[in-house]
Amino acid sequence: MNVFPSTLGDLYIGSIHDGLQNHIDSHGASLVYLIADDHTADLCVPLLGSIVSKAHCSIIPSGEANKSIESCQQIWSQLVKAGADRSSLILNVGGGMVCDLGGFAASCYQRGIRFGHIPTSLLAMADAAIGGKTGVNFGGFKNYIGRFEKPSFIWIDPVFLNTLPPREMVDGMAEIVKHAIIGSSDLWNMLNRVEHISGIDWMNILKTNTTIKQHITEADPLEKGIRKTLNFGHTIGHALESHFMNTDHPMSHGQAVTLGMLAESKLANLTGLMGNEDFERIIGLIGQLLSPSEVTLPSFEELQYWLAGDKKKSMGRIGYSLPDRIGSCGWDIYVKENEVADSLHWLGTYART
Ligand code: NAD
Fold first, then answer.
1. Run means of pLDDT, 10 residues per run, the chain, 353 residues
2. 71 lines ligand 1 (CB under 6 A)
3. pLDDT at position 216
4. Residue 96: CB within 6 Å of ligand 1?
5. Which atom of ligand 1 has the smallest separation from the CA of 37?
6. Is the terminal CB of the chain with fewer CB neighbours within 10 Å at N or C?
7. Exposed/middle/buried for 95, CB within 10 Å: 0-12, 13-18, 19+?
8. How many whole angstroms from 131 Cα to the centroid of ligand 1?
9. Is the Cα torsion angle 156, 158, 164, 170 positive or negative in sign?
10. Which of 100, 143, 209 best tests ligand 1's pocket when mutated (most atoms within 8 Å of CB)?
């Protein structure tokens, strides 16, 4: 069992059968309450076995569209019915959707009750469960209502990855690649040695990945400075995700971030921030590990609506987080509209090939 203590929630990486029960008991909770989606309720909750045999449970339909205030209301009603109070403990057993939603629901219920994350998707293990961001989508925009609220603990056990569909594995890998690009040449080198995603030693990669995400979020928990580097790929990525969320063909978060990283790397390259060599290496690794979707992108004008709603906008301008080389990233970088349009044009050509 590896323990990574943190002011934003202690993180454990290892088997759930190696101490999770004791850990939950140590919270002295009046009631343990699980939140899962329909897939993780079937595939992951049973792996917890007797750990949660007496727990009450809210099961939310899977899918990003259910990361909503309506799902929160369902959870809150069920918590009231179950008699949850301030000494209860909520366990979020699921991917990033469940962790964000369950963390937010817990942080508002009775002005906040304790919660632990048991992330089950690679994306949640690598990113969503770490750092204390919780929230729901609202008005068609991603994560528009939310809170910074630290979990009591995060317990990462790669055993859950055994049932994760391959597409979701690739989505989680996108955030790991992002962490390498913005802050770790060590992780970058580890990823470059990976021949195929199916042969990865997850314990090792997740440990190195965790160190980066924890380091950045602890240094700047409220995202006033360096934490903004985690938004690399997410400005254009969220705009794409929001656009497709409002069509009949929603795009997963990981795929949107993959396309966002490609476009924003091009933006860094076009604006002269990042040289051609690093740009080509980034495009190469993304192409190899993340299989970017072949999609027809919306026009720049269509995307502008979603970019205009970006949470990272301040005083009417979007501050981009852009890498200047592999392992280093700046933030609050203001670029010209035509440079964004040119990057998206390049992405449009790339994504159709
Ligand atoms: P998700 O939670 O929707 O999970 C993706 C799919 O995988 C779902 O169908 C889910 O049921 C299924 N699944 C999860 N674990 C499984 C398992 N072990 N076996 C089989 N199926 C399983 O999405 P995600 O990709 O995990 O996370 C994306 C969400 O995370 C987005 O809402 C995004 O905004 C959020 N996010 C949050 C942060 C943060 O800092 N809070 C960071 C990154 C992403």
1. 91 92 89 97 95 90 96 98 96 98 98 98 97 94 92 97 94 96 96 87 94 95 96 95 88 93 98 98 95 85 85 75 97 95 93 68
2. no
3. 97
4. yes
5. 11
6. C
7. buried
8. 15
9. positive
10. 100
Please report, for residues 24, 53, 244, the alpha-carbon distance to residue 237 in angstroms, rounded to integers and kept in the order given. Answer: 36, 39, 11
186 residue type, one letter: D
Report residue 64 as tokens.
């990003």
Q: Is 107 in the pocket of ligand 1 (CB under 6 A)?
A: no
Supply the pLDDT for residue 333: 96
Q: Which residue has the tokens 């204390």?
A: 132
Q: How far is the CA of 270 from the centre of ligand 1 (A)?
A: 32
Structure tokens at 146: 């939310």
Q: Report pLDDT for 293.
A: 75
Distance, CA 82 to ligand 1 centroid (Å)?
A: 26
Which residue shows structure tokens 């009417």?
Answer: 316
Q: Is the CB of 127 under 6 A from ligand 1?
A: yes
User: Would you state the structure tokens that stand for residue 313, as one six-digit string?
Assistant: 């906008």
